[in-house]
Specification:
single chain; mainly alpha; 10 helices; 9 strands; about 10% strand; globular
């Protein structure tokens, strides 16, 4: 399935199937490949293409709110070209740089030129595919174009779960389409292991419904039922990049869950 971006926010994105007799082939094969602003439709092709999350994403894309401005992908050479309220997001974390962000007020992705991210080294290309795809996943997370800075999922569970979820979805889309990971500049790797455990424990469906469709209450109730309020410890450890502590907390909570006595109900009717 493909989606075209149209001029203006009020028009509806249109989906169409691949030409008859042709199988799907992603427009890029490597997460580290450079992309230009003109590659925005290819970015959406990958996002809406085969993956475990395709059905969830396509439902969002079919919604009228999913219409995008024609220039929704902006690749900038300086943070001065980014709205001031968003500039703080382009931060260096250890050996990585957060190279992009989403402006939910306008439905625009801002990506810092790859050469700027990498300290001026290397050829003069634009942005890296995997990093741009990560921001595209953010853009379609619930709610779509809303007057808030963060999606519902990240707003409810914090930066660690939010960024980790976005990166896990990005990697799953790439894996399903045979697109290799970008080996450098990986600012989200510390967030992903706890999120993968979360998905394994509470199901991909519950996770995807919360991320893309805003069904936060259902996922929160499931975590409360299984782990109690201590699920927040996992979220907090993940946000502070204490990956090992987050995984250890999950292990502790799962052990406690398995040891919990089962209350049998006998029906003598």
């Amino acid at each position: 399935m493909y989606i075209r971006a149209h001029e203006g926010l009020g028009q509806e994105g249109r989906l169409s199937a691949p030409p008859a007799g042709k199988t799907y082939s992603p427009p890029f094969t490597k997460g580290g490949q450079p992309i230009e602003e003109d590659d925005r439709d290819k970015l959406l092709t990958i996002l809406s293409g085969p993956s475990p999350y395709q059905d969830y994403i396509l439902r969002v894309m079919k919604n009228r709110r999913a219409a995008l401005p024609r220039t929704f992908l902006r690749i900038v050479t300086s943070l001065k070209q980014v709205p001031e309220r968003l500039r703080h997001r382009f931060t260096r974390t250890r050996n990585s740089v957060v190279a992009g962000t989403v402006d939910r007020w306008t439905g625009t992705i801002y990506m810092l030129e790859a050469r700027q991210v990498e300290g001026g080294r290397g050829p003069s290309f634009r942005a890296r595919l995997e990093l741009a795809l990560h921001e595209a996943v953010h853009l379609f997370g619930h709610p779509f174009i809303a007057r808030v800075d963060e999606g519902t999922f990240q707003g409810a569970y914090g930066t660690g779960f939010g960024e980790g979820a976005t990166q896990v979805i990005t990697e799953e889309i790439m894996a399903a389409q045979g697109i290799s990971k970008y080996a450098h500049e990986r600012p989200y790797d510390e967030f992903t292991p706890p999120v993968r455990q979360l998905i394994s424990t509470f199901s991909m469906d519950a996770f995807a419904r919360a991320y893309f469709w805003g069904e936060i209450r259902q996922l929160t109730e499931a975590m409360e039922s299984r782990w109690g309020p201590a699920w927040r410890n996992v979220a907090n450890f993940t946000s502070s990049r204490n990956t090992r502590m987050a995984l250890d907390e999950i292990k502790t909570l799962e052990t406690a869950h398995r040891r919990r006595p089962v209350l049998w109900r006998w029906d003598f009717r």
